[in-house]
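Hi, can you check this record?
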Amino acid sequence: MQRRRFLQATAALGTGSILASQVGSRTAAGQGQPGADAEEQQMTPRSAAHFFQDEDFDFVFLGVLGGAYYQVADVGTCLAIADQIRDGDAASAVQAMTAAGDRLAAIADEAAAAGRRVSARQAYQQAANYTFAATYFVDRMGAPERFAPTWLRHQQLWDQGAALLEPPVERVRIPYEGTTLPGFFFNVDDSRRRRPLLIFNNGSDGSLVNAWTQGAAPALERGYNCLTFYGPGQGTALLEQRLYFRPDWEKVLTPVVDYALGRPEVEPGQIAVLGVSQGGYWVPQAVAFEQRVAAAVADPGVWNVATSWMANLPPPMAALLAAGQKAEFDQYMDEGLRDEPVAAATLAFRMRPYGLASPYDVFNAVEQYTLAGGVAERIRCPMLVTDPEGEQFWPGQSQQLYDALPGPKLLVPFTAAEGADLHCEVKAPGLRAQRIFDWLDSTLGRQ
């Protein structure tokens, strides 16, 4: 087999995040590689829709910029960061993002010392957002050892800011299979009054910044308390506890619901669950078996996680996988990636939360992450499925999930014309929240 064919395999390693699309074509173009022509690495003129030619860089940046709606970014700061990044150059992205994070952290420390809670909170949250963005590029710059410290630094900054919310975020531990999962409970106020609860389920690589902008902040504005958590393979559950992804997510969500029902602020009949990115698989999987959820949202709908890994796997590699030829599969993958650091970094990033060292083992594992075989047909609670135009990772699967749902359901399109296209509608958090929470209000009888 030719090495170029192995690169095609890595083009599909997105599993619900960035760092996946068209790796081979970018590598072939020389972007981000040592010795690449400097002019080729410069950012192209910006348009209303794109800041970078490199799709990974552009998507991460759009997510950072979209955070301005909920005050975890400043537009001017984001544009200044973009000016410091050479298109496709991961080291420049890490430098620009971490420098901005450090600058905002210093501002936050000074404001906190002076008792200026609002200024300190906003600066800490912005610092966390910029620092978190850098975690997407440390593998690609050839420094995987920086992933955990950078992630944990962003978590520290977020926690410092969240402690200054009114009321402060409550850090909790959720009992789970002989250990606990880290959880974060957001109260609307200090009244302890029973309210509807949104459980926010992050995706494969999300952070508390994502939980805030995509779940907690809009929930609090509308009178919902919010509980989010790091499940196996996510955040500090991965980095500090060495817990890894699992497909049977009902074994994760049920303990979260158990914990929620033990809190006096939670109205038992009004628990909703929102899953984003790969959470668009995990939430439907979980609510197929967890019957105490009153409403669920998949943003977007994910029918089969494995398709984003398998779609471009060359037929000879697929044949090795199907035949169980692990040694040959791993050898060919290693040979194909040996001279392709960007593609190799993509695979390393995507494999990390599975806790597996062998590409063969990971490719085998992701095939378990599917709603086929009657799982979706078990779902009884009302479900909203978002369907963003230009979905990069699981195109068409929102419709597939919607069609299989037997109960009350709604498919909600988001379009480029309204600036709400792409995975998880990162450019239009306000519009996204309006549609999702208006449906939740109606479904839970809050109108």
In short: The chain has two domains: 17-159, 167-307+371-443. Residues 135 and 149 are 9 Å apart (CA to CA).
